[in-house]
Amino acid sequence: MIDLSLEKLVILYVLLLLPLGLIYRYSSSILKSAAISVVRMTLQLFFIGIYLKYIFQFNSVWINLLWIIIMVVAANITITKQAGLSNRKMFLPTVLGLSLSTLLMSGVLILMVVQPTPFYDARYLIPLTGMILGNSLRSNVLALDRFYSEIRRNKETFVGYLLMGASLNEAIKPYLSQALKTALNPFIATMTTIGLVSLPGMMTGQILGGSPPFEAVKYQIAIVICIFCSMALTSVLNIFFSLNVAFNDYNMLNDEIFLES
Amino acid sequence: MPESVIRFEDVCVQVKNKSILKDITFHVNREEQCVLVGKSGSGKSTILKTLLGFYKPQKGTIYFNGRLIDQTHIHHVRQQIAYIGQEPVLGAERVKEALLLPFTFKIHRQKTPGHEKLIEILTMLCLKPEILKQQTGEISGGEKQRLVIARALLLGKTVFLCDEVTSALDPENKTLVMDQLFQKQHTVMSVSHDPEWIARCHTEFTVLDGTLIKNPHD
């Protein structure tokens, strides 16, 4: 692969003036957060480069496991916060769903598809788990946000279902359906156009790295399937695991789960 | 001695650390029709909602049909009571779907009424059968109220909690709704400011800053 020189990187940063300029002109309220996110992206990737260098060097099962735990915890804190939910109340039930689905789908990808030796090889384990986790994070934010905000917004209707004899699982069904649709629709749209409109990042990376296109395609199919499974699984699990905390024993939504409360 | 359907004993309810109900004690007997009156914010609606488990009492006990309302019993209580508010929840796009909505839930699935039963109940409530094909967004407030009553009757409910039901109805719809609710076999616990409604109730309580006073009633 051709090495990306510092000068080229600087030119790429200069290119950022274009979106930032457009934001400044037309949507200045997000200028600050856009600028902060660019700085964060740079620093986080810079530090991850350093961490990964040592993690790859040590290649210890325990360090890799610890790193994955850190990734899951960071992802989950972001999920609850972005979904407008209180970390204090919702962290535990949601971290359980996220961990289970990430563990399961990363396990399939590592042990069945890639099969590195040793199986915990950081060079494969960390980036592949990260891909699954990153996508699950997005679907979880959308699912949890939509699910709880819709129930809160339509409280009368939700309670109406309970008064008509619905169990909690029956009363949440329409909201669960909406939440799943919101969480999975963007990825379904991506799958529909994959290969036609865009080439996925991992596949592009493999092709640029010299792999034959068909090899790259097979791996990409495997990872898309695992990501989709994890997104669906974690969205549903997190909603079901959080019900006990989010609803009281009379099946009423507990307002304390929301951040602003 | 008449059988009490609803019984509150020293019930205190706080909402967001504010004391709303203070040591409320009363009972409503089977086939008794009672009304709670009082200023807005005095706690009238909270009494109805506490019975339905919207709020959990910090102190005191509530009984329904002689059984203590707790987490194991609340589901059963909700199945027995019809709640009708100012803006009724139909919960579906079409009237027929709205009427049959409770029968999509496991607990009522075996009792799904046929078309003839639907027509019978609609006729009883002076609603035309054509309404079944209409969108719920197209029908009037009075029709919505009557559809909620129709749904309760289809479920065989005889205990009604009514919160300012007639406040947005024209006189004709008001009479129709009241005639259906104040049937002899119905137990009604209601909140109202409407003199006609109050006159049709057997008992009247005034709610004053979260406390309850029984009024003399003709």
Describe it for me?
The complex is a heterodimer of chains A (261) and B (218). Chain A is mainly α. Helices cover 79% and strands 0% of the residues of chain A. The radius of gyration of chain A is 21 Å and the shape is globular. Chain B has 218 residues and is of the alpha/beta class. Chain B has a single domain (4-215), classed as Rossmann fold. Chain B contains 7 helices and 10 strands. Chain B has helices spanning 44-51, 74-80, 95-100, 115-124, 141-154, 171-181, 195-200, and strands at 4-15, 18-29, 33-37, 59-64, 67-68, 81-84, 159-163, 187-191, 203-208, 211-215. In chain B, the strands form 2 sheets. A 6-stranded mixed β-sheet of chain B has the order 6-7-8-3-9-10, with helices on both faces. In chain B, strands 2-1-4-5 form a 4-stranded antiparallel β-sheet, covered by helices on one side. In chain B, a hairpin with a 2-residue loop joins strand 1 (4-15) and strand 2. Chain B starts with a strand and ends with a strand.
Helix percent of chain A reads over 70%
Instruction: Give the biggest sheet of chain A.
Output: none
Low-confidence stretches of chain B: none
How does the helix and strand content of chain B classify structurally? alpha/beta
Radius of gyration of chain A: 21 Å
- Report the mean per-residue pLDDT of chain A as an integer: 91
Shape of chain B: globular
Distance linking N and C termini of chain B: 21 Å
CATH fold type of chain B: Rossmann fold
Provide the β-strand percentage band of chain A: under 5%
Helical amount among residues of chain B, as a percent range?
Answer: 25-40%
Number of helical segments of chain A?
10
Number of helices of chain B: 7
User: Do you know the CATH architecture of chain B?
Assistant: 3-Layer(aba) Sandwich
